[in-house]
Amino acid sequence: MRTNKLKTAAAIFLLALLAVPLYFTSTFVLHMFTLVFFYIALTAAWNIPAFGGKFSLGHAAFFGLGGYTASILYVKLGISPFIGVVAGTFVAMVGGVILSFPLIRLKGPFFTLASIAFAEVLRMVAVDWRALTNGSVGINIPFRPSWLNLTFTSGAPFYYIALGLALLVIALAWWIRSSSLGYHLRAAAADEDAARALGINTAKAHFLGLMWSSGLTGMIAVFYVFYNYVLEPGTAFSMDLFSLQPAMNGIIGGMGTVWGPVVGAIIMTPLGEFLRFYLGTIQQGLNFVVYGLMLIAVVNFVPGGIVSLIEPWFKKKKSGDSSAADN
Amino acid sequence: MELIVQVCVSGLLLGGIYALISIGLNLIFGVVRIINFAHGEMVMVAMYLTFWLNYFFGMDPYVATIIVLPVMFLFGVLIQRIIVQPIQSSSANMKIFATVALSLILQNVALIVCKGNFRTVQVSYGMSTMELGGIFISVPRLVAFFAALISISLLYYFLKYTYTGKALRAIVEDHTIARLMGVKVQKLYLLAFGIGCAFSALGGVLLMPFSSVYPTVGIPFTLIAFIVVVLGGLGSMGGTFLAGLFIGVVEAVGGTYVSPALKEAIYFGIFIIAILIRPQGIFGKGKGSEEVGLK
């Protein structure tokens, strides 16, 4: 009964989302929605290793690898971004394999540290390797509108692409969390030694989690880069945009849960844009101070993230409304 | 041949400062068991303090130590009391969030207050060198090295022979037992954070005569300090000192013969190799390191 109502509500909500580009022609509204979807996808992908308690602050590495691979293939060799997506995903996964070396031995904090260093190293390489990446000037995606080139004259196609990506990654995250991999990861997060004593290959679980996460991040990056037409080391491997932001969304929403990244991205993306426009123009850097204070407040008062506040209320409630289905 | 000796000497001298900063981290890490991601930002704050003292009062960076060190000691105590203590019993990840947030706040407050410009202190001896058997040695770097050596020796003496020092070492060895033996753990946490912060601050002050300060100057120091602590071993002062020198030399050699832009790549490589070969640290005591994720 209750699940039926929930399903109906979710279906209505989804239909409403599909209709948004038909009613809102304002580029700002569409852009904001698209950005939120992209960040839901990025955060949900970041969150997969977090099922196992691994906290990465270097996902910009996978983002940059995916984005650079596809745009280099397209701009220098004329290869369609649809092949670029596959290549970008693969290269990002190779990055994941490299980062998984320290993972074999390291618990939480040192993994976090290694991930920061990894992204920084790649940024340096992207700046230094001018022949391939154009150095700090970056790569511009030429404006040649066509489906095959992933270039469009209106904002609507990317709205649907981003929505599709968000739904895909949420579904995958949900599936992974309820699969045996998810149970292994959660066991490892709760108590690594106990999980190992029970015969769970935790190293393998962490490795697979990172593979999913890095591959998906690389894939999302390809679409994001084509949405933005431009790619340079400072943004592609940006600590703020693609390492810290997904992590912050995840923490504030609820790290290691399926819906945490969704809630986090829905709240933090518009807030981030708002802060950047209002506070950032008054005083550069003020928005990050606010972010930092928010993080400290969350850690102190709601360590489980916003989802941990909503969940009990949601479970007790007799029937879900559309906003609950969304969360 | 002469070049390589020259490069190694300047690397060694810089390594002294790295050792100083890393020993601050080692103490905080070992005693309070927190992964302080804002460690480099403490160096940054100290560098800015030195700069402003020089800018407004014309104070020599070395003289500024008298003010900067106590201020930074207090700063460390406050961080422990306000940010860390409330989440002392939460998971390691929560402590990471809190210190990452702190580093974000400090970096951006620095950006707001001091703007993004590179700031340097103008001192007469900033560029002065002395020649020793065909090798040129920068005077401020030499001063920094010896100041590091002396202060690390003092800390070693303090930890080895005083009652408080012994209590701190007891906490590094085993928290619970130290508490059972009547060690005032909470108070010593404050002390350890203060001392750790002051040591990093000293590193920052000693850097000022020959380098510049900007809001994100601290980021590499956090990384370097962690690598040095991993190499040197948790709770080992001597190991940390040697590892600091080692990283200094590696950076200088790598920067000269490979590419200065790939400095971070070199650190990362060493870091990975070190934890794969000997995760308990090259000189390490290893004990208790499981708790903080090193195993």
Report the helical percentage of chain B: over 70%
- When the domains of chain B are counted, the total is 1
Largest sheet descriptor of chain B: 2 strands, antiparallel
- Spatially, the strands of the biggest sheet of chain A line up as 1-2
Number of E-state strands of chain A: 2
Overall structural domain count of chain A: 1
Helix content bin of chain A: over 70%
Would you identify the regions of chain B where 5 or more consecutive residues have pLDDT less than 50? 286-295
Helix tally of chain B equals: 11
Largest beta sheet of chain A, briefly? Answer: 2 strands, antiparallel
- The dominant shape of chain B is globular
The interface involving the most residues is between: A-B, 42 and 44 residues
Span between termini of chain A: 19 Å
Question: What does this entry look like structurally?
Answer:
The complex is a heterodimer of chains A (327) and B (295). Chain A has 327 residues and is mostly helical. Chain A has one domain (2-326). Chain A is built from 16 helices and 2 strands. Chain A has helices spanning 2-23, 27-51, 60-77, 81-105, 108-128, 130-133, 156-178, 180-190, 192-197, 202-228, 233-236, 239-253, 260-282, 286-301, 306-316, 322-326, and strands spanning 139-140, 230-231. Chain A has a two-stranded antiparallel ribbon with strand order 1-2. In chain A, helix 3 runs antiparallel to helix 4 (81-105) and helix 12 crosses helix 13. The radius of gyration of chain A is 20 Å and the shape is globular. In chain A, 50% of the residues are buried. Residues 318-327 of chain A have low confidence and may be disordered. With 295 residues, chain B is mainly alpha-helical. Chain B has one domain. Helix content of chain B is 71%, strand content 3%. Chain B has 11 helices and 2 strands. A two-stranded antiparallel ribbon of chain B has the order 1-2. Chain B starts with a helix and ends in an 18-residue tail after the last helix. Classes of the chains: A mainly alpha (327), B mainly alpha (295). At the A-B interface, helix 4, helix 5 and helix 14 of A face helix 4, helix 9 and helix 11 of B.
